[in-house]
């Protein structure tokens, strides 16, 4: 498994190195891999744990109240009403997907959106659900058909919500959003586009599997402030070592990469002159705000 230095993890999560050491020594929450030299190295699982800790503290929980076993749950964050609500909804949606029951899926999804903003629903329900389906497929408990059934449903729902969003009210920076070459999934792009729009950004989405050599022209034509790339797969060496570097030089504006791709290839992205945002949407938006300001 790929290992990351404490500096890289700090950049991906927004948590300082001193704080990470305190979480390890004082509270026993994070247990990094130790080299013979004593340097700390972190796995992707550690990064997920750090993001969960951040989400819990942002909701008012003191660091001393967090226990290691709380970080092993798939749901990264809790609401004031507790995590049982989201666990029940998650299990109900998994059952509906196993039965290929779109009506039941629709009922649960609409109920969640009637009670909570899309950002909370994404964080507490949709993201854990996508992870659960992936785990089911890897462990041979589920099928590709299940994953495709839900992906098709969710893509249509989020796409419709994005299409019917309120227009003309956002006064924030314009950002060009595109999927990395070879990335054919659009759900992550749609979720980020919707969340960024609700955060006040003017989003220009180009969809999945976008050639990088066309982005600089579009971004300049639309007076964008940044180019945001996203993907769940590790980009090829051609993309990282040549295409991305060329885009950074031609763009004349910040180029950022989010999603799992930015975790897998964090070092290469930084070497290309771009910014790796990590896969946590809220942290990514905070990083974008800092970079653009």
Features:
single chain, 293 residues, alpha/beta, five-stranded parallel β-sheet, three-stranded antiparallel β-sheet, 13 helices, 54% helix, 10% strand, globular
Structure description:
It is a single chain. It is built from 13 helices and eight strands. By secondary structure, the protein is α/β, with parallel strands linked by helices. The strands form two sheets. Strands 5-4-6-7-8 form a five-stranded parallel sheet, with helices on both faces. Helix 4 runs antiparallel to helix 5 and helix 7 packs parallel to helix 8 (187-198). Residues 73-82 have low confidence and may be disordered.
Summarize the structure.
By secondary structure, the protein is an alpha/beta fold. Helix content is 54%, strand content 10%.
> What's the helical proportion of residues?
40-55%
The rounded distance between the terminal residues' Cα atoms is 35 Å
Largest beta sheet: strand ordering: 5-4-6-7-8
Oligomer: single chain
User: How much of the residues is beta strand, in percent?
Assistant: 5-15%
Query: What best-fitting shape do the alpha-carbon axes yield?
Result: globular
What's the SSE pattern?
A: EHHEEHHHHHEHEHEHEHHEH
How many DSSP helices?
A: 13
Uncertain residue segments:
73-82
Overall radius of gyration: 19 Å
What structural category do the secondary elements indicate?
A: alpha/beta
How would you characterize the largest beta sheet? 5 strands, parallel
Number of strands: 8
How do the helices and strands line up, and which of them pair or pack?
Elements: E1 4-5, H1 6-13, H2 17-25, E2 33-34, E3 40-42, H3 44-58, H4 84-98, H5 102-115, H6 118-138, H7 144-163, E4 174-179, H8 187-198, E5 202-205, H9 215-221, E6 226-230, H10 237-251, E7 255-258, H11 260-264, H12 266-271, E8 275-278, H13 281-292
Parallel strand pairs: 4-5, 4-6, 6-7, 7-8
Antiparallel strand pairs: 1-3, 2-3
Helix pairs in contact: 4-5, 4-6, 7-8
């Amino acid at each position: 498994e790929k290992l990351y230095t404490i500096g890289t993890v700090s950049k991906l999560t927004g948590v300082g190195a001193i704080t990470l050491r305190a979480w390890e020594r004082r509270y026993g929450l994070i247990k990094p891999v130790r080299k013979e030299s004593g340097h700390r190295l972190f796995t992707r699982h550690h990064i997920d744990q750090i993001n969960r800790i951040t989400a819990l503290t942002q909701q008012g929980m003191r660091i001393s109240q967090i226990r290691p076993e709380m970080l092993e749950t798939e749901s990264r964050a809790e609401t004031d009403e507790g995590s049982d609500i989201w666990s029940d909804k998650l299990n109900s949606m998994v059952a509906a997907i196993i039965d290929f029951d779109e009506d039941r899926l629709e009922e649960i999804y609409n109920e969640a959106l009637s009670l909570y903003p899309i950002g909370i629903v994404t964080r507490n329900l949709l993201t854990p659900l996508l992870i659960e389906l992936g785990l089911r497929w890897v462990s041979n408990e589920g099928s590709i058909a299940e994953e495709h059934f839900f992906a098709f449903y969710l893509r249509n729902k989020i796409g419709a919500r994005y299409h019917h969003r309120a227009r003309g009210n956002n006064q924030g920076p314009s950002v060009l959003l595109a999927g990395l070459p070879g990335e054919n999934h659009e759900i992550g792009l749609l979720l980020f586009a919707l969340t960024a729009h609700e955060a006040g950004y003017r989003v220009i989405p180009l969809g999945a599997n976008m050639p990088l050599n066309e982005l600089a022209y579009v971004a300049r034509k639309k007076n964008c402030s940044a180019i945001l790339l996203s993907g769940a797969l590790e980009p090829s060496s051609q993309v990282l070592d040549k295409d991305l570097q060329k885009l950074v030089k031609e763009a004349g504006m910040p180029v950022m990469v989010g999603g799992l791709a930015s975790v897998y290839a964090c070092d290469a992205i930084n070497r290309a002159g771009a910014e790796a945002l990590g896969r946590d949407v809220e942290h990514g938006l905070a990083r974008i705000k800092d970079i653009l300001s």
